[in-house]
Structure formats: structure tokens, C-alpha cells
Design brief:
The chain is an alpha/beta fold. The strands form 2 sheets. Strands 3-4-2-1-5-6-7 form a 7-stranded mixed β-sheet, sandwiched between helices. Helix 3 links the parallel strand 5 and strand 6. The longest helix has 15 residues. The chain is globular and about 60 Å long.
């Protein structure tokens, strides 16, 4: 894993956790991970360890079929426990990555037990009472949380984090994105299916997909979420639009997204075109990107080296490049660029841990 994305000022955990109720430990919280054996759960464990998150105890929870497994943390094995209604006694911070159904059932129980929940599912993202947070963008939204904080959709995080410093100086009025989404976005089972389907294809064997609706090897297809019969947009595309408006605090931002699965194991890529209120030059955008927290400029035209998923995989930073004027807009207000970011890290686990650090 790459270095921390923003140099990290040490946070004062005393103030952060004193408000969590009588069970809390001011200096070192008890942390639970729900969905610990999944792809994001594994990365949550690694992020806590790599970033030296101070905790008194780490508890790992998953479904009954994963209970009893052992996962390493700081060189020591930790047993995975079965999640039940009594799992949150004494827990100060619960990191959820187990799907919307689990979150809707267990997150309120965790809050009632005295924990603050950071949820990676879509269960609470559009609830007006729940902050939807990317720390580099809207950290201040954490002040109003009522026990549950939502982690945004991975594609939204990767697409818009590099755009925030631009939006602050020259408001973005319209945003168009086309995504190239890796198997990691559909979890460990989809990653395994990509490997197995590729092996079968190269060996000339038939392969019947079980996780995704189409053959994944050497193929691309529309994101495997339900399509709204009225708008024609799938759920992933709708999430990107709705969540971006909420995170930016701009209900008038016009957004169109096309989300596609590509046969890449890990790290999403996104082609982004945006239109600002006033004319803006590619050089100005490049200067803003260079100073943006959580972002690394990869824009070497001479060597044709721009953001790629192979470079973004395992890295905390979102890679940004191919910054150029959109020549289809004669007003000079539009810019095109390309980004790549690790869906399991900044698109999920890392962002959740950053939220915990920022509390």
C-alpha cells in the first residue's frame, strides 16, 4: 500500500470519542469491522494497521459461514466472530462493509449500544439526516452526525475528489463521466470470477458466469445494476449523480454518467468532462490538481504515461492526468481529464478510516 494521501496531521482522539457514550475509551476506542472477510473488510484491517490507527481492541465480525476464520492484525491472528444483535456491547466505532441489508438491520443496534457507525453500503447515503463524507471535500459535515456516517459510492469518490479544488474556485455547472470499473467493485467473488473466466478463455474451455451476468474475460458490459425504465440510467449511474450533488452541497449540478464493467482486477478508471461557470484553462486545472490532497498528477504526454489501473492499484492517492481543453466547447469553460483510483482503498476502506480519523 502506498503512503498516506495527505501527510496526516495527528488527530485528537480524546475529543473525537468522548461524545460516544459511557462505554467509550477516550484515548483508544474499541473498533469493530462488520464484513471483515470481504474484499473491503480485508482492506479495512490493513488500513487500520498501516495508518497506525490507535485502538484498544479490534473485533472482526462476519456471517455464520465465516465465523471461526482467522485474520492477521499487527502480526497476530484475530478470530472472526458471527455477527449478532449483541455484537456491539462495548464497541465505540463500527466500520460496516457487509451490504445494505446488514447495515439497515445492525447499524441502528450498534448506535443504540453506544457506537458510531461508518457504513460503506448504500443504505443511508441519501438519508438527509446522515452525512455522506469524503474528508478532503466535506469533512465539516461530520459535526452533525447522529451516530451513522455514510461512505460514498466508490465511483463517486474517485471521480469527484480531484474536482473539488476546481469547484471551489470556479463552480462546476455540468459533469459528464464514463467509468471503466474493475472487478473489485463487485467484491472478492467477482475478482475470482474474472481470474477463472480468463483462465478458461485462454484454455479454450467453456465458462458459465455466476457472479456477473456476462462473460468477464476479454469483454466489457454495462454496470450490472438495475436500469430505471423511465430514465434509462442504471443504479450505479444514478448513485454517482445523486451522491455528487450531496457531497458538493450543490443540488443544481447537472450530471450524466455511463458506468461500465471492464476486465480489470482492481482499481476503477473514469473519463471526466466538466463545464465551469467561467472560462478555465488546462494549465489552471493542472496547478489546482497538483496541490489537491489525496491526488497525484500523472500527466506525461511525451511518454504517453497517464493514469492506469495497474499504477493506481494498492495506492492511496487518486491518479489524475490527460488534462486538456474540451475543444467541443468554444466558450473555453470545459475541461476533459482521466482518473484512476483503487476502489478498495480510497473508493472504500481508506475513505472510511479517514472518516474515523477526522471525527
Amino acid at each position: 500500500m502506498g503512503p498516506p494521501i495527505d501527510g496526516r496531521a495527528c488527530l485528537d482522539l480524546k475529543g473525537a470519542f468522548e461524545s460516544m457514550g459511557p462505554q467509550s475509551s477516550a484515548a483508544a476506542p474499541v473498533v469493530a469491522i462488520v464484513g471483515a472477510t470481504g474484499a473491503v473488510g480485508i482492506e479495512l484491517i490493513r488500513c487500520l494497521e498501516t495508518r497506525r490507527f490507535p485502538l484498544a481492541e479490534l473485533r472482526l465480525y462476519a456471517s455464520a459461514r465465516s465465523a471461526g476464520k482467522s485474520l492477521a492484525y499487527r502480526g497476530q491472528p484475530l478470530a472472526v466472530r458471527e455477527l449478532d444483535e449483541d455484537s456491539f456491547s462495548g464497541v465505540n466505532l463500527a466500520l460496516f462493509s457487509a451490504g445494505s441489508g446488514v447495515a439497515k438491520r445492525f447499524a441502528p443496534l450498534a448506535v443504540r449500544a453506544g457506537a458510531t457507525v461508518i457504513d460503506n453500503s448504500s443504505a443511508f447515503r441519501m438519508d438527509p439526516a446522515v452525512p455522506l463524507v469524503v474528508p478532503e471535500i466535506n469533512r465539516e459535515a461530520l459535526r452533525g452526525h447522529r451516530g451513522i456516517i455514510a461512505n460514498p459510492n466508490c465511483t463517486a469518490v474517485i471521480s469527484i475528489t480531484p474536482l473539488w479544488p476546481i469547484h471551489r474556485v470556479n463552480r462546476i455547472r455540468r459533469l459528464m463521466v464514463a467509468t471503466y470499473q474493475a472487478a473489485s467493485g463487485a467484491g472478492a467473488a467477482a475478482m475470482h470470477e474474472l481470474l477463472e473466466s480468463t483462465r478458461a478463455y485462454l484454455e479454450g474451455r467453456a465458462f458459465e458466469p455466476k457472479v456477473l451476468p456476462h462473460r468477464y474475460a476479454f469483454n466489457i458490459f454495462s454496470h450490472n445494476t438495475r436500469i430505471d425504465p423511465v430514465t434509462g440510467y442504471n443504479e450505479e449511474e444514478t448513485k454517482v449523480a445523486q451522491e455528487t450533488r450531496k457531497i458538493f452541497g450543490d443540488s443544481e449540478l447537472r450530471i450524466s454518467a455511463t458506468c461500465v464493467r471492464v476486465p480489470v482486477l482492481r482499481a476503477h478508471s473514469v473519463a471526466v468532462t466538466f463545464e465551469c461557470e467561467r472560462p478555465i484553462a488546462a494549465g489552471e486545472v493542472r496547478a489546482l490538481v497538483v496541490t489537491a490532497p489525496g491526488v497525484t498528477l500523472v500527466d506525461d504526454a511525451e511518454r504517453n504515461h497517464f493514469p492506469m489501473p495497474q499504477d493506481a492499484s494498492g495506492q492511496d492517492a487518486i491518479l489524475v492526468g490527460r488534462i486538456r481543453q474540451d475543444l467541443s466547447d468554444p466558450s473555453g469553460r470545459s475541461i476533459a481529464l482521466f482518473v484512476a483510483g483503487d476502489q478498495l482503498l480510497k473508493g472504500a476502506a481508506l475513505n472510511a478510516v479517514q472518516i474515523a480519523e477526522a471525527l
